[in-house]
Amino acid sequence: MARFFTVASGSSGNSAYVGSSEAGILVDAGISCKGIVTGLCEREIPLEHVKAIFITHEHIDHIRGLKVLLKKLKVPVYASTKVLDYLLTNECVPPGALLETIDNCTVNVAEMEITSFRTSHDSVHSLGFRIHTADDRLIGISTDLGFISDTVQNGICGCDLVLLESNYETSMLMNGAYPYFLKKRISGKEGHLSNEDCATLLPQLVRNGTTRIVLAHLSKENNMPDLAYQTSLNGLTAAQMTEGKDFVLTVAKRSETGDMIIL
């Protein structure tokens, strides 16, 4: 059976495991190597069961532990060509690391098919992933996106489980202490996704088969887990959908390992 859990999720670091009890992948390595290994151990996934690392983009909260982790774990790193070039140029990976592009293609790792799709973010290049597991489950991962494009919708629509960004609450951001330029960046088309915009998409996902929704990449300063959860729940309830019957909604933990979800 397919397994999914977040090792960490938030503006300070991100990583998630997707696979089975025997083999899987990490999506991002944005916390320390020690933190990743500890999180996997907490969910009884030995490090050697990780067969590849997929990187959404090059920001530090997605690659912080990558270099040290690759010294322990000799597996390929998949990312866009632009991100791979960045990792090499900035010495974010150890010498001899196996780097594989996932531009506009599907790759097979750990008996899963992983397809990338473009997201809008102010990085050298940013991706989401659609993962088809060995037991015919679909998992969609999409964080760090300024808006929900048609490409993003197509990438996650029809997935059994979706990890979707719910980064900030608009009034908290706009009334908070951040300088104007940073507020503009976060709320812009290449920034992050608000609670409200996240909630707007969820009914469409549930109508197309999504039963597990995990809200991710919450801002520490401009959001609260209960607020993100309630905004999404309100959007789903307004669409006549019932929690526990039509969907299960959770919020990924910032600095703790998330619960194992078995599909």
Automatic annotation (TrEMBL):
It comes from the Bacteria. This is Phosphoribosyl 1,2-cyclic phosphodiesterase. Signal peptide: none annotated. Gene3D superfamilies: Ribonuclease Z/Hydroxyacylglutathione hydrolase-like. It comes from Hydrogenoanaerobacterium saccharovorans. Pfam families: Lactamase_B_2. Residues 12-181 form the Metallo-beta-lactamase domain.
